[in-house]
Amino acid sequence: MANKLEAFYGLPQEVKFCKKCIISNQRPSSTVEFKNSKDLKKEVINFDENDVCSACSYHEEKEKQVDWSEREKNLEELLSRFRRTDGRYDVIIPGSGGKDSAFTAHILKYKYGMNPLTVTWSPHLYTDIGWKNMQEWMHTGGLDNMLYTPNGKLHRLLTKLSFENMLHPFQPFIVGQKIIGPMMAQKFGVKLVMYGENQAEYGNKVDQNTHSVMNPEFFSITDPLEMQFGGVSMKEIIDNYEFTINDFTPYIPPKLDTLVDAGVEMHYLGYYLQWDPQECYYYAVENTGFTANTERTEGSYSKYSSLDDKIDTFHYFTTLIKFGIGRATYDASQEVRNDKITREEAAYLVKKYDTEFPKKYFKEFLDYVSITEEKFWEIVDRHRSPHIWKNVDGEWKLRHTANNDGTDD
């Protein structure tokens, strides 16, 4: 019966769960689209013949096949090509001051002798703990930072369009996150941009794990006016709202040939150093004043990941609606791979927390995107894929969970 149900977004009709972690085969392998509609064909995480996901396979490969001492030598060789001793910055590190960017910036400065400039694309709405950790990043971690805040009026509109049309309120934010590093590298004449871990480690395109360099495809946009935000082109937004192309300056990626000509390289530190998010957390606590939240994050059991933005919980809630994968699934799958918890423990945590609605900042989210609660639920329910969700006596329930490995209906 389930195989006959319509699957939105080009997702696989048969829902499977990884036999090692608990991620499902519905997880998209890319995070930014400039297209629209529930008919959008998505690439999803790969499963092998044993129903093991590519993220778990890659983690096992890292554990058994990668020579990490050799990788660190490669890192030192890379850094030596860019290191400066004349007072100028020599590496740009995009981040929010969370555990991963805190680790990246601090270790590059204090262990490897680099002179980093950290750059931050501002969250939609800072949380108290997010702002505190952001400040500690500089004042305790001893780092320089530039906080870049885009046109708030435009950013609200783009977020609203992305939520209404794609159920993807983070789309404009992700665009900014990707652009801010290379953009500031150009501004300051820095030739190295260093990110933390590659999202390929969690299930994005697996071939990205074979090298340290960021996929340049994002910087190959030829006509900015054709870029789409929430399925609406930049040209349409300019024609229908009181904005000009100049207002979109922060969202227009630097051209790839310009970056190449300037000698700018974009690398992932997680390629060179064995990456463990929980160990990054311990390092950040000890060295940069990072603190976990006093309460767990809604939709998960975690207290130390993605704490800075009040909209963040709604990003994960929308992935739950579209793909049946909530925040607890992402957190628990990662911790299974890093041997922090067992698969059975992960399944329990997901059952308990994954479908929890993020109530804490709900009113602020509605105000930010200027919609009513009734409109919110209309948009959410419109994006539920029939092969993932069923309505039982007026209550929406997932058809498949990791606890039953896809045998429920």
Automatic annotation (TrEMBL):
InterPro entries: N-acetyl_sugar_amidoTrfase. It comes from the Bacteria. This is N-acetyl sugar amidotransferase. It comes from Sulfurimonas gotlandica (strain DSM 19862 / JCM 16533 / GD1).
